[in-house]
Structure formats: C-alpha cells, structure tokens
Amino acid sequence: MTNPIWKFDPAHSSVTFKVRHMMFAKVHGRFASWQGDVAFDPEAPDNSRVDVRIAVESIETGVADRDTHLRSADFFDAESFPEIRFSTSSFEKLNAETYRLTGELTIRDITRELSFDAHYHGSGRDPWGNERVGFGATTRVNRKDFGLTWNQVLETGGVMVGEDIAIEIDAQLIKQAT
Fold first, then answer.
1. pLDDT tier at 57 (50, 70, 90 boundaries)?
2. 5-175 falls under which CATH superfamily?
3. Which letter, b or e, does each residue of 140-175 get, where b requires 16 or more Cβ atoms within 10 Å of its Cβ?
C-alpha cells in the first residue's frame, strides 16, 4: 500500500536558520520559496519519504545587502546553484511523537547525509474539510561541508561568520486527494 501524499502549506510552514555572527550574536534567516512532497502514514512511517526543493534566491535575513552577499558566489552562488535539495533515505519512528529523518542534503551540488529530529504535532481537519498534519524538524550542519567557506578574521579575534548552522522547519501539510 502506498502512503498518502501531502503537500506543504506555505502560509503555515517555514524553513529558517540561525548562524553565529562575530562570535557573540546570531543572525536569523529564512527561505521564502520552497516546495516539496511528503508521503506519510503514521501507521507505516518506515515507508514514508520527504522531498524538498528550496529556491536559494529566496533567502531573507532582513538586511538587503547581506541577502545579496549570501546569494553571491561567496556563499550560495544562487546563479550557478539555484536550489537546495533534501530527500530522505529513511524515516524512523523513535516514539509516538518523534521521528528521525535521514537523507541527502545538497547545497552547491555538494551532497552529504544528514538527519533531522522531527516531532509530530498532531492532525485534524480544517473548516474546508482538508486533512492536515503538523511537524517540526531540526538539525545542524557545518556550512564548510557544503563549500560555504567565506569568512573574515576579526580584529578582536575570531571570525565574522560561524561554521555551525541551526536549521528549523515548521511544517503544516495538507493531504492530497488520491
């Protein structure tokens, strides 16, 4: 039996990140444009899968000059590598509300295995009769593993941009008609 297909509800979902700036603060950002499919059945999670594609050009940190720099060849090189992709290879149920999603993350055509800790937040019907589920997922990556190596040494010691990136996804999914 095939698991039902779910689509992300972009109005109620987000892909965000945090990175250390100048060693003592954090910059928060998000990707405004992304899409994907999820095949999920809480009764058969081992057969589930997630495929997500993120438009690099849609990166937003609230500072236009920084966003332009992040889109440049110094960082994501959005012109040459317009998408970030994640596809699961396994979907493991750890307990009633917690899952581990392992798969391949591709940034700048560099692919690495990565796991997300995911939490099932529940399900229900909206006022229009659509079945919905909610998930939250987190992980951490070292940006240098994906060729994002630009940095600047600070006069006071340390560097401008941290290596460790925290990624958080909040997703509300809508079950698709079969």
1. very high
2. Lipid/polyisoprenoid-binding, YceI-like (2.40.128.110)
3. ebebeebebeeeeeeeeeeeebbeebbbbbebbbbb
